[in-house]
Design a protein that fits this description.
The chain is of the alpha+beta class. The chain is built from 17 helices and nine strands. The longest helix is centred in the first third of the chain and has 17 residues. The protein starts with a helix and ends with a strand.
């Protein structure tokens, strides 16, 4: 075991120069890289968790336009914050951003501290994000180890340890801390991220010919790139069937606020029923709510995958009789009837409902009148 550890250490020592040369030659131009303030690095790294770079860019720009600094983030109303986050998923990340910003305002004068231990103590910040902020924004030699880094080092060294094991991550952090260049720790971490995103990719065959480590990589030499890294098998996701109802009267659509705790807590959704329901059951349910259905049309099915479960959804567009009150935001049996335009600006609706949110866009544009069966 000691010999293997020494071999791994010697190999790790040889990665820095070719990696940084490769990064300098062709790194991507990204907005948070060009102006790497602590706030910019922090926001971008939280957004980039489990989300592709190209998908993040418009969210990042929109977020910074609305909340340009820590003070504005600390003061923002939660529903506005969640609306800005809409589509990125994992909404507790946004809530933790606000909690951390409030601590930074109250305890640090609205500034991000430059010490790793203080950064990691903030809500929603783990060792990876703390290392990224400390190294990129403050030039501190702190490793930033995520799944990308674990994957590429597993292949580089033909390391068959389970990368989901926390002890493996801890050992990699310690190894990288010993070889990080003191003058370019932020570039070193970003180069590792870049290599994992562009060359030693997670899905599909790695692009070994473009890799700065192709002569060093043991997995490439031994034909192991398709079996590394090793990961313990996850439990299969549970499947839940749901029926989603896009309910509209003459001018408004119905939303419902989810509970303050649990999955998608505090966000807005379209009303739903458990299971895949037929038309008659849907209509009976609406009548129980005191609504008068006029027309109904089945909508396309949809699926949304969460970490531990999947929603398999069918949907209906239902036109109901005009409600007596014309006031926006009227509540009825737990439903909130709002102007369709407000679903774009005021109410955060998770991407799980994106297929059905498209129907609201059609309602806004007056294109949702065909093929709705009269009652």
């Amino acid at each position: 075991m000691k010999d293997q550890e020494r071999t791994i250490a010697r190999l790790t020592d040889r990665i820095v120069a070719p990696l940084l040369a490769w990064y300098d030659k062709g790194r991507r131009i990204l907005p948070w890289r060009e102006n790497p303030t602590p706030y910019h690095v922090w926001i971008s790294e939280i957004m980039l968790q489990q989300t592709r770079v190209e998908a993040v860019k418009p969210y990042y720009d929109r977020f910074l336009e609305a909340l340009p600094d820590i003070g504005s983030l600390a003061a923002v109303e939660e529903e506005k914050l969640l609306k800005l986050w809409e589509g990125l998923g994992y909404y507790n990340r946004a809530r933790n951003l606000k909690k951390a910003a409030q601590i930074l305002v109250s305890e640090y004068g609205g500034q991000m501290p430059d010490e790793f231990e203080r950064i990691i103590s903030l809500p929603g910040i783990g060792s990876y994000t703390a290392g990224a902020v400390a190294s990129i924004a403050f030039g501190k030699p702190s490793p930033a180890v995520d799944g990308n880094v674990l994957r590429i080092l597993s292949r580089l060294r033909a390391d068959d340890r389970d990368i989901l094991n926390p002890s493996v991550k801890k050992s990699v952090e310690e190894e990288l801390a010993d070889v990080m260049p003191a003058d370019r720790p932020g570039d070193f971490n970003q180069a590792l991220m870049e290599l994992g995103a562009m060359v030693c990719i997670p899905n599909g065959a790695p692009k070994c010919e473009g890799c700065p480590w192709k002569e060093l990589c043991r997995a490439r030499a031994e034909g192991l790139t398709d079996v590394l890294p090793q990961k313990a098998k996850k439990k299969p996701r549970s499947i839940e069937q749901k029926t989603i109802l896009v309910i509209q009267d003459a001018e408004r659509v119905a939303l419902r606020k989810r509970p303050e705790k649990g999955l998608l807590a505090g966000l807005y959704e379209f009303p739903s029923m458990e299971g895949h329901c037929e038309e008659e059951r849907v209509l009976a349910y609406l009548r129980e709510l005191g609504l008068s259905p006029l027309r109904i049309r089945e909508l396309p099915p949809a699926k949304h995958v969460f970490t531990h479960k999947e929603w398999h959804m069918k949907g209906y567009l239902v036109r109901v009789d005009e409600l007596a009150s014309k006031g926006d935001g009227q509540r009825m049996q737990g439903l909130l009837f709002v102007d369709p335009r407000q679903t774009r600006t005021d109410y955060p609706i998770p991407s799980a409902f994106s297929v059905y949110a498209e129907q609201v866009e059609m309602i806004r544009n007056g294109k949702n009148k065909k093929n709705i069966r009269n009652m």
